């Protein structure tokens, strides 16, 4: 964790003048800089109060161990300061040096921690100062980090037990191999997407072999770009491995012996994710402890019998199953697989893009009584199939029917009438006909609704729906609702963090901006792709929403001037989409990438 002025958003260092004029406040450094020792001493001398003997004593009710525990729980909710942070007193300073405070270090960019603040220098200095105390480190999404940060961690944190750096594209698998050799106590390693662009295809396989040889206590592993079955076999022989997450494994052969590789770990694996293993045809095995099975993107998977056998063995433990995009499984094959599995303990089921018809829905209603989250995106069933699942009594809290064009808003009545449903997330965009009359009962019945997605050519909602939305709504996506005229009611949603007004008009955006309370607005993700807007509108928008982390302005008329405004005002951006913005030059894009090096900028040069 990192200590600063709790939640104030302060992100700069204290100036020399501020330090010199500080009274009764001890200036200290996260990094124990030796060049500040004399300055701290001088500051104390200048500001000695008459009751100096008691100036830095803590309240009698505040135990230092309790304070250390409190600080240790703050995590990434406290803003990282670049070099200096003001401490309340020497007692607080002392508490922050307790090992408890530094057991878990989280520097993952968020709305409270700018990605530009997480640099190699910051990580290296923290590792050198507090390395022996640190047990786990989270750097997920810190795109500015390079190999040197990880190498310094490896040198200074030999007792490290957990390391996650998902999406840190500058680290490279070479540095990760050094970390694994230096930290034999690792039990958690999540490094998907950490490869360098220059890394050879086999670097992930080398890392896998290093892990197998040096990390006997490893329990949770996330890795990408594996290309050799021998590497997978070595990983599965790790004696403590419980969860294996492999992504971007398009080059993994998945030969006839692939399923047999899992035999040594089948009785202890609780989570298996094989994302985008595009060569995988069949997967079976005696997995009796699986709680999570993710096969999303395995587009050639076709062995329904093997899948059914696998599901049957873990029917009492499996709580999450994803077959999203497994289009090669026939409708009949899916029915046979789930029929063979028997009654399942599933809570989350993702079948987006699969051949799900009404008959399978009726079967799922009978065999999945515990479903809380169901994703049927782009599936061909009708209202009858959806109703069969709802009426079976599943306690649904999340339902995705996006692009199910044979489903209409009438099915939502079943949600409102069900005593079991506790809806929090609903996606009914691009269905058949959806009107205010369909959705108003939903937002009135489910006061805990947190996310609503609707829109499309046949969605005829109006501002009546916006005026009735629950005040606690956190995400709202209105994608091309043709009858929506007034967006001002959105401003009353003070907890809203994600908003999509894709394909909206200039007047709709103007109404929203005029209504927003800048001081209380929490929006960090905004999609206005396809909207009618110009550079002036972008300038106004970016100045109103400077804390945006994600912004999509694809297929708009903005120019280099608008892009510069975004870069100037939205310095925290982690993702910026400007696809099909034909008025933006290549030079402006390069300048933006230099100004926001931690931001993923999506741009196609025409």
Strand and helix layout:
Elements (H helix, E strand, L loop, with lengths): L15 H6 L5 E3 L7 H10 L5 H4 L8 H9 L11 E3 L3 H6 L8 E3 L13 H11 L5 E3 L8 H10 L5 E3 L8 H10 L5 E3 L12 H12 L5 E5 L4 H8 L6 E5 L23 E4 L17 E3 L9 H10 L6 E3 L8 H11 L6 E3 L7 H10 L5 E3 L7 H9 L6 E3 L11 H6 L7 E3 L8 H10 L5 E5 L7 H6 L6 E5 L18 E3 L5 H10 L9 E3 L7 H10 L5 E3 L7 H10 L5 E3 L8 H10 L4 E3 L4
Parallel strand pairs: 3-4, 4-5, 5-6, 6-7, 7-8, 8-9, 9-10, 10-11, 11-12, 12-13, 13-14, 14-15, 15-16, 16-17, 17-18, 18-19, 19-20, 20-21, 21-22
Antiparallel strand pairs: 1-2
Helix pairs in contact: 6-7, 7-8, 8-9, 9-10, 11-12, 12-13, 13-14, 18-19, 19-20, 20-21
Salient structural properties:
606 residues, Leucine-rich repeat, LRR (right-handed beta-alpha superhelix), two-stranded antiparallel ribbon, 22 strands, globular
